[in-house]
Amino acid sequence: MTSLKKLLLGEQGLVVIFAVAFAIVALTVPNFLTERNMLGLLQSVVTIGIVACTMMFCLASRDFDLSVGSTVAFSGMVAVMASNASGSILVGLLAALLCGGAVGLVNGVVIARFRINALITTLATMQIVRGFALIASDGRAVGINDPGFYQLALSKFLGIPTPIWVMAFFFVLFGFVLNRTVFGKNTLAIGGNPEASRLAGVNVASMRIWIFTLQGLVCAVAGVLLASRITSGQPNAATGLELSVISACVLGGVSLAGGRAAMTGVIVGVLIMGIAENVMNLLNIQAFYQYVVRGLILLLAVLLDNLRSAAAGRRA
Prior knowledge:
Elements: H1 2-9, H2 11-28, H3 35-44, H4 46-60, H5 68-86, H6 89-112, H7 118-137, E1 142-143, H8 151-154, E2 156-157, E3 160-161, H9 162-180, H10 182-192, H11 194-199, H12 204-229, E4 232-233, H13 241-251, H14 263-282, H15 287-315
Antiparallel strand pairs: 1-4, 2-3
């Protein structure tokens, strides 16, 4: 029983459990292992995977961001509208990055400088930014004028869609940042003990601002790719994304109490979310039941986080 508990709570244990679950699904669900389905599964988790890379830093520093879904939708809208207006895809991309970064910067400044709770701040910006997206589009989808915009999502390299490569690049990049840079070490230190980090010379407020700004920039990238994939700027896109991203991170071992994170765990958490939805679609389970499954996964993630925290406390 003790060894099973260690397996459930350990980082390598999560990978083992995922591998076993993947094998069971592959053997029992028809068409799951086909190339088309595997690429479709990876495509379906691109948005969650990209945003989870920086949500990991938010959670590891004892914060979180509920505005990511709205920022993704708003950035995608801005990219399409700016591209249509200017006739340049590059201008659209830069406009999206600027808007996404601005949302993250505002979140960071309000949380770090004005000391307002991250829950309240990002809940407010979630509503405000979604409102901006609806106002800018008059509540309607905005079509893409330049067919080249579609190629951001439709293009392939070595037979694999470009968005999957982008997600993989972000996994490698932010995994390196977390494990090999001062920025990553300071993030974990702040999450472990903000006051001790401040006394050790870490500029906690500045770090938080940078983390949220990065979150906004990454959301912009995800928003552009999503708009390209769904062939329009949708003001209601990415609704509920924040819950899926937080679930994936916490399932992957990122602590809600801060101070603990691992990119390998986040990747596994993202894949678990994607496989659960993919299997339900393959089995033709109604969308209504899928909401129940997502809620159960979130509860499971929080339960595992509590168990990990308790185990870490006992070891300490």
